[in-house]
Design goal:
The complex is a heterodimer.
Chain A: E1 4-7, E2 10-13, E3 18-25, E4 31-37, E5 44-50, E6 53-57, E7 64-70, E8 73-79, E9 87-94, E10 104-105, E11 109-113
Parallel strand pairs in A: 2-11
Antiparallel strand pairs in A: 1-3, 3-8, 4-5, 4-9, 5-6, 7-8, 9-10, 9-11
Chain B: E1 3-5, E2 10-14, E3 19-21, E4 24-26, E5 31-38, E6 44-50, E7 56-58, E8 64-68, E9 73-78, E10 87-95, E11 103-104, E12 108-113
Parallel strand pairs in B: 2-12
Antiparallel strand pairs in B: 1-4, 3-9, 5-6, 5-10, 7-8, 8-9, 10-11, 10-12
The chains are: A mainly beta, B mainly beta.
C-alpha cells in the first residue's frame, strides 16, 4: 500500500466555522507533512511531524493547528480562516532517517473559505 | 542556500514530439533531485529521483532525466509525448540528511497538442 489518503476531498467553510482535514498512511512512514498549494504554484510547506512530534512549523498562523494522534494519522484543525486560505491542502509522508527517500502525496483537500 | 529554477513556465509540444522540461539547481552540497507531476485536481506523484550513482535516471511513464553536475542541471525528457502527459511538472531539490524539506521550482505546465 503506497497510498496517502486525505479526507474530505472538498470542503467549503465559513470564516467562523471549525473543521478538520484528515490524512492517513499505512506505509510505516514516520515523517508526515502538511503543504498548502495555490493554483499553478508549487506546494508550500506548513508543518512537519517526525515520530509524531512537531519538528517544523513554517510560521503558519495559529488558525491552522496540526495534530498527529499516532504514526499513521495526521490532522489539520481549521478555525476562523480567511478567504485567502482557500487552496489545495496536501498531506505527504516519507521515511524518517532514510537518506534518499521521496515524499508520497495524497490527493489533497480542496478548501474554499467563504 | 539551495534553489531550483525551471526554465519556461509553459511548454507546448505536439503529440509524438520530444518533451524537454528544464531544471537547474544551486546547492553547496551534493543534491538529491526529484521530478514530480501533478495532473489537474490531483496530488503530486513522483516521476523520478536522483540521489547517488547512475546519472541517467529512468522514471515512470517513459520519462527520464540526467543529472549533470557540471551544468547543475536535471532536465526531464520523454522521447514521444502523449496527450495524457499534459500536466504541471515540478522539479525539487533537497540535501542528504534533510529529506524533510524540499525546495521547489515554480513548475512547468506542459500542454500536448493533437
Amino acid at each position: 500500500d503506497t497510498e496517502v489518503t486525505q479526507t474530505p476531498k472538498h470542503l467549503v467553510m465559513g470564516m467562523t466555522n471549525k473543521k478538520s482535514l484528515k490524512c492517513e498512511q499505512h506505509m510505516g512512514h514516520r515523517a508526515m507533512y502538511w503543504y498548502k498549494q495555490k493554483a499553478k504554484k508549487p506546494p508550500e510547506l506548513m508543518f512537519v511531524y517526525s515520530y509524531e512530534k512537531l519538528s517544523i512549523n513554517e510560521s503558519v498562523p495559529s488558525r491552522f493547528s496540526p495534530e498527529c494522534p499516532n504514526s499513521s494519522l495526521l490532522n489539520l484543525h481549521l478555525h476562523a480562516l480567511q478567504p485567502e486560505d482557500s487552496a489545495l491542502y496536501l498531506c505527504a509522508s516519507s521515511q524518517q532517517g532514510a537518506k534518499d527517500t521521496e515524499a508520497f502525496f495524497g490527493q489533497g483537500t480542496r478548501l474554499t473559505v467563504v | 542556500a539551495q534553489s531550483v529554477t525551471q526554465l519556461g513556465s509553459h511548454v507546448s509540444v505536439s503529440e509524438g514530439a520530444l518533451v524537454l522540461l528544464r531544471c537547474n539547481y544551486s546547492s553547496s552540497v551534493p543534491p538529491y533531485l526529484f521530478w514530480y507531476v501533478q495532473y489537474p485536481n490531483q496530488g503530486l506523484q513522483l516521476l523520478l529521483k536522483y540521489t547517488t550513482g547512475a546519472t541517467l535516471v529512468k522514471g515512470i511513464n517513459g520519462f527520464e532525466a540526467e543529472f549533470k553536475k557540471s551544468e547543475t542541471s536535471f532536465h526531464l525528457t520523454k522521447p514521444s509525448a502523449h496527450m495524457s502527459d499534459a500536466a504541471e511538472y515540478f522539479c525539487a531539490v533537497t540535501r542528504a540528511g534533510n529529506n524533510r524539506k524540499l525546495i521547489w521550482g515554480l513548475g512547468t505546465s506542459l500542454a500536448v497538442n493533437p
